[in-house]
Design a protein that fits this description.
By secondary structure, this protein is α/β, with parallel strands linked by helices. The chain is 28% helix and 22% strand. The strands form two sheets. The chain has a five-stranded mixed beta sheet with strand order 5-4-3-6-7, covered by helices on one side. Strands 1-2 form a two-stranded antiparallel sheet. α1 packs parallel to α4. 35% of the residues are buried.
Amino acid sequence: NIGDLAPELIFNGPDGKPVKLSSFRGKVVLVDFWASWCRPCRMENPNVVKAYKEFKNADFKTAKGFEIVGVSLDKAKERWVNAIKADNLTWPQMSDLGGWTSKPALIYKVQSIPASFLLDENGIIISKNLRGANLSATIKKLTK
C-alpha cells in the first residue's frame, strides 16, 4: 500500500544474475510488473521507455536519480528476452518465470498487469499504477 516500505525482491535477470530491488535505494524507482504476452503492457511500454529516457539523468529534490525495475510474469524465458529487446527496455529486469503464480506477483499482490509501484529514495511506495502522461507528471514533481 502507499506509505508502506516496498517488499524486497531478489530474482534473476535474463542473464541469470540476481537483481536486488533494495540495491537501488537512494533513487526513485518504478517497479513495473508486465509480461511479453500482455497486450496492454506492451502498449504501455513506449510510455515507460519515454519516462526512463526523460528522468534517468534528471536531478531530483531528495533522490540520486531514477531507475526502473521490470518484473516479468512470463513463463518462457525466450519470449521474455525477445520482448525486452523488441520494446527497447534498457533497465534491469527480473523474473522467476512463474507466470501468474510468480513469487514477485504474490509478494506485491498483483492481480492484473500492467501494474506499477513508484518508490521514493527510501523504498517507500508513494504511488501505484501510473500510466501514460500520469507517470511522467508524477515523477516530474520529484525533480528539482
